[in-house]
Amino acid sequence: MPCNLCTSPEAETPDRLTVIADAIDAALDAFKPDAVAVERVFAQHNVRTVMGTGQASGLVMVAAVRRGLPVVTYTPSEVKAAVTGHGRAEKAQVGFMVAQLLGLDAPPKPADAADALAIAITHALRGGVRASSAGAPTAAQAAWAAAERAARRRG
After folding, report:
1. Measured over all CA atoms, what is the biggest interatomic distance in the chain, rounded to whole angstroms?
2. Over the stretch 23-79, which tens digit does the pLDDT of each residue have?
3. Mean pLDDT, residues 122-133
4. How many other C-beta atoms lie within 10 A of the C-beta of residue 107?
5. Please, what's the b/e burial string for 36-75 (b: 16 or more CB within 10 A of its CB; e: otherwise)?
6. In this structure, what is the dihedral angle of CA atoms 74, 77, 79, 84, given to the nearest 10 degrees?
7. How far apart are CA 124 and CA 37, in angstroms?
8. Pairwise CA distance, residues 95 & 108, whole Å
9. Per DSSP, what are the bridge partners of residue 72?
10. pLDDT at 87
11. What is the pTM of this model?
């Protein structure tokens, strides 16, 4: 079941979110995962991107919880560090390492596909299923976020 999901930019947000929610439900029903890992977006300069990503992530988390699946979130820096060894790796590095780790001839396209696979790899490397309580950050995520905030203030 390929997941080529597109919504019209002209469509109203609730309509677009409904299309996305239906696709998420179909994917979860078709693939029957044991857990769901999602990128935790907590800081970004582009508010519109953060809102859209947050809304879609929320739909994924709700759909998973309704099926009794554990949901785990990872920050982009955690994913980059797990896959490349460096929390500030560039997208190209992440794609390259995803390809290497999965034995692919080339990085997955589009880059979002590589990001999704990197989140799955991170989850597997971190021991697989571990439910978070209502999306609260783990101690490691909280420490990482604090370190990133401190680095931004210094730099």
Report:
1. 47
2. 999 999 999 999 999 998 766 677 778 888 899 999 999 999 999 999 999 999 999
3. 72
4. 21
5. bbbbbbeeeeeeeeeebbeebbebbbebbeeeebbbbbbb
6. -170
7. 10
8. 7
9. 37
10. 93
11. 0.76
